[in-house]
Every structure is written in structure tokens, then in C-alpha cells.
Amino acid sequence: MKRMLPVALLALALIAGGGWLLTQPRNSGSEISLPGAAVAQVAGTEIEVADMYQGDVDAPIEVIEYASFTCPHCANFHATVYDQLKENYIDTGKVKFTYREVYFDKYGMWGSMIARCEPTKFFGIADMLYDEQADWSRAGSDGAIADGLRKIGLKAGIGKDQLDACLGDGDKLKALVGWYQENATRDEIESTPSFLIDGKKYSNMNYADFSAILDEKLAE
Question: Span of the secretion signal (predicted)?
Fold first, then answer.
């Protein structure tokens, strides 16, 4: 389980190091289609940050996942638990599932900016980031990691010009850091993955434990 750094210190590092990705080469790729997002206003700025969710907005249970694209435990959760949750609870209208990014480092931030470049593709790109995490996150240099992330964005069908515009958006970068700080501080998030199930915080767990909690709430 990955522990979080103090958010104020991390924010400075992210803002200083987040915009470099634009200098990397680009390739083309195929398209995927995904669910949409609910939009929330970030306090103190005109930039809007989308709170990405799947499932019925009026579902009886809300699950919020806090996770980082560079967290191996988060990748494992998405490989071993998430697909079953989606099939049995999200797609059946029982759970509204919201995903909120946590930023440990600039690489997770870069991944977030790619995933958010086209909101309708967010969850598909997130799947790709986790599936290929061992490759792009361990590529070595900043340039190699950035190149791996850019290839994922292009493979998801984001056009070159759109990708460049998203990755060069410094105002959006600052808004995302502020949004992350506000969420993590309010919900007392200290590690990833963490979950809020109808407002109650839980740490990482397997599918059996997760489904048991959901089933108990559904039976209330």
C-alpha cells in the first residue's frame, strides 16, 4: 500500500515538473469509447475538474476510489477486483463508482492528464495505464516514461493536436493539484488504494470482502 506524501510539498513538485511531457514523440492508434463524468468546480479557480464516474448516478451505493496510476497496489486492485465489481455492481445499477486520482509524483500526474484529455475515454485509458504500468512507469528516464504515456494516449485514439493541447495546459495542471489536495485532505486519505463506501473509509481489500460490504448495505 503506497503512503502519501504531505500534499502541500507534493503540489509544488508536481506543478514544477508536470509540463515537460509535450516535448516527446507521438504515434497514432485506435479508438475506444467510455462512460462520461460529473463536473465539480474547484474552489478559487475558473478551471473545472471532472469527477469521473461509472454506473447509475442514482445507484443506492456510492463507492469512491482514491488511487494513483503509479501505485502497484492500485494496479493489482484493478487487475483482480475492479472487473468483478464493475460486472456485478456497477453495470447492474447497484453502485455509482467514482475514481479520484492521487498524485505521488509527476508521472502519475502526466498519466492523469492523458486520461483526462478526452473524458469519454477516461476509464478505458485508466485501464491501459494500469495494464501497462510495469512498462511505462519503469522505463527509466523522464523521456522514456513520457514517451510510454504518450503512446497510450495515442493508442486510445486521442489526436495529436488534442493531446498536445491537453498536456500543455498549465492551468488545468494547477487545478488538478488543487482538486487533489482538497479531496485528499477532506477525506483524510493517507494511502492508496483507499475507498469511501457511502462516506465510510476502507483500505485495500479483495473482492470477497468488498462484495460482502456491498451486499450488507444492499440488504439494509
Answer: none
